[in-house]
Amino acid sequence: MENFLTFFSFSDPNVRYVVLGTILLSASAAMVGSFILLQKKALVGDAVAHSVLPGICAAFLFSGTKSIPLMLLGAFTTGWLALVAIDYLTAHSKIKKDAAIGLVLSVFFGTGIVMMTYIQQSGNAAQSGLDHFIFGKAAALVGSDLLVFSILAMVILITVSLFFKTFALIAFDRAFAQALGYPVRRLDLLLTSLTVLAVVTGITAVGVVLMAAMLITPPAAARYWTDNIRRMVLIAVLFGTFAGLAGAYISYVAPAMPTGPWMVVVSSLIAFFSFFFAPRRGIVPKLYRQRKNQRVIAEENAMKVFYHLGEQGGNFTGQHNLQALMGQRDMGAANLRAALHRLQAKGWVTVQHGQWSLTDDGVGKAAKVVRLHRLWELYLTQYMAIAADHVHDDAETIEHILTPELERELEHQLGYPDKDPHDTEIPKG
After folding, report:
1. Same domain membership, residue 198 and residue 317
2. C-alpha dihedral sign at 366, 370, 371, 376
3. pLDDT below 50 — which residues of the chain?
4. How many domains does the chain have?
5. pTM across the whole model
6. What is the structure's pLDDT at 96?
7. Which domain does 391 fall in, by range?
8. pLDDT of res. 351
């Protein structure tokens, strides 16, 4: 608890530098990464992250010292050249985009490793710690580094804010943006530059290898929580900020733990939680909704069985045993029993001595399902010109999802019919 209070009091200057630096790089990367993800260019971020290494090494060879501003300039230059190379290869050769990304990534990163090896063997004492740019070392951040990161983050924030609507339009409908006269190519180059800038902002803390994760993972997680792009960007920034703060805290509590990799781990845990438990898109809620829909379909199918037997016998509240119900429609004995017990709990069926029957409310519910089925069959025969003996299966599926609004529209379009294509009476609504 003492470590927690000390850390979040930000009384230690080193803690302030690390926390603010990681938050700035995480938030700016998540903001730009949201548009990269929506444009399906996630691998581009990985290519940029690996392509900045030769720029860092070239800047060091040029200056002979670890000048952060100069190294960031070198990183930006090679990262931007990498993206230009990818676009050029894709446009002027038969190489596909994914192959071009892999080719450029490997060439630039390989060149960077060769240059770094040369620097390490050169005997220049100033090269100590240069390898931290590969995996990052947030603890090495100082006040001047924070100032540079703040400037870069503000540039990204202001630019994205100014071009937010345009970036969103291009992400969702590029052809429409071109038709409206937007300079799509130039805007692509602007987003490319922001991507490189976001990567450059984070390489000191996270490193070139892991920076792609901070660029893509928070937006990918945020995409599971909303369909609104503004909320998605905001959630991505919050996820990235939390990952940065958590990584810095873990590194503070356990000094042997590196900040950058833990930022990626926390961000990945958020993403996995989102993939499984996000309310609308998560795997678990989807499975729950699917299971719930299957139960509703089974219940409605069981009620249709009662209604059809009632039509045959002239008594909709007549009693039937399981064998009679199974003879009308093979739903599986266990599935049918489970559906009947749920219907009984809802008050739509009742049972006496093993004999099941619809209640008055159940008759109305069953009639509604049958009504939707027969209305849709009639619609398919009249408007889709499908033979009457080919419409049953389609109606079996659609009847469970027709809304009251669609039901009224079907009635209106069909002229409030009394009979379905098989000359069977359609129950009244």
Report:
1. no
2. positive
3. none
4. 3
5. 0.80
6. 87
7. 363-414
8. 92
